[in-house]
Amino acid sequence: MRFPEPKVIYLYAEGIIPNTYSLILDFGTQGTFEYCVDTVQLEKISVKELNQRKMIILIPFYLLSLQKIIRKKRSKENLEQLKKLIFNDILGSIEMNYEYGNITMDDASRLKNLTIALYRHLYANYEEMEDLNDMTDESLILEYDIFLKKHNIESLDETVEWIEEQRKYIEEQGKYIEEQGKYIEEQSKYIEERNKYIEEQNKYIEEQSKNIEERRKNIEERSRYIEQNEETIEKKKREIEASKKEIETGRKEIETGRNEIQKERSLMVKNWIKAMKKLDISTEEIGRQLIEILGITQEEADTYL
User: b vs e for 175-193, b when ≥16 Cβ sit within 10 Å of the residue's Cβ?
Assistant: First the structure.
């Protein structure tokens, strides 16, 4: 199934307009799709290109392109530029498309009336526009004469009735333009909100991607750390076993040394006691000296004596 390619057309824009608007379409289990819509600024399309694209219906809105310039300065050059835009580009294009059969007489009449209505809304209230206002009125008169000839209108009543119908039509077109302006403004706000939402979603996805990447790195680091710790633990176990053996060996050596020292000490005490007895020193005195000089306990002294 093939769908026509949509465009967002800006009739007038003072700010920066993005080249495209993007919408994320969520199809549930079938995934998401980024739907891009190109934007088109009317003032950047030439009158020739507009006619080639058969977009003559937008030709009255070219009046918006000079709105900012005329509002700022109504010089002779700017007024001449506006005059050329109205009579050559806009009205001229309408006449050309009517002659080529691209639009009907009624279409041409509506486009011209819409042009005049938009002109009066944007520019007719300026004092410098008096001459140009008269010229636009003359263009309406010309259009009116063509209409009378086509429909053979001769009576004044019929003429008044036709004028009243045209006035109502112009008012309706003015309301339509106002409604379209509100609609375009609402759509712009909606698109802006969608862009903000999409931007927030992109940031969220980017943050989630960073978090996932950081978690993956942490898992890898922890895996390496566990592997290294396992090797370190095994090494420590071997070192502890070796230390236990060394301690046990040292303990045995100490115990052996302690026994040897005890034997030597015992032998020394016995020899000392013998020497003291040869000197006819009493047993009590020998015991006292053992305790004071050699630092042995009373119980040990009793054992030796």
Answer: eebeeeeeebeeebeebee
CA distance 206 to 294: 85
Distance, in Å, from the CA atom of 56 to the CA atom of 93, rounded to the nearest integer, reads: 8
Q: Give the model confidence (pLDDT) of 129-150 as tens digits.
A: 776 666 665 555 445 455 555 5
Question: Two tokens at 119?
Answer: 């002109």
Whole-angstrom distance, CA of residue 86 vs CA of residue 132: 10
| Beta bridge pairs of residue 41 | 10
The rounded distance, in Å, linking the Cα atoms of 269 and 299 is 14
Distance CA 130, CA 134 (A): 6
Alpha helix (H) ranges present in the chain? 47-52, 67-72, 76-84, 91-99, 105-122, 130-151, 156-278, 283-292, 298-304
pLDDT for 142 equals 47
Q: Which residues contact 159 (CB under 8 A, 6 or more apart)?
A: 148, 153
Distance (Å, whole) CA 231 – CA 236: 9
Cα end-to-end span (Å), the chain: 123
User: Does residue 48 contact residue 30 with C-beta atoms inside 8 Å?
Assistant: no
* Residue 144: per-residue pLDDT: 46
d(CA 42, CA 21): 17
Q: How far apart are CA 127 and CA 133, in angstroms?
A: 10
Distances (CA, A) of 253 to 204, 245, 248, 256: 70, 12, 9, 5
Instruction: Using a cut of 0.90, tell me whether the model's pTM lies above it.
Output: no
Map tokens 């960073």 to a residue: 210
CA 85/CA 60 separation, integer angstroms: 10
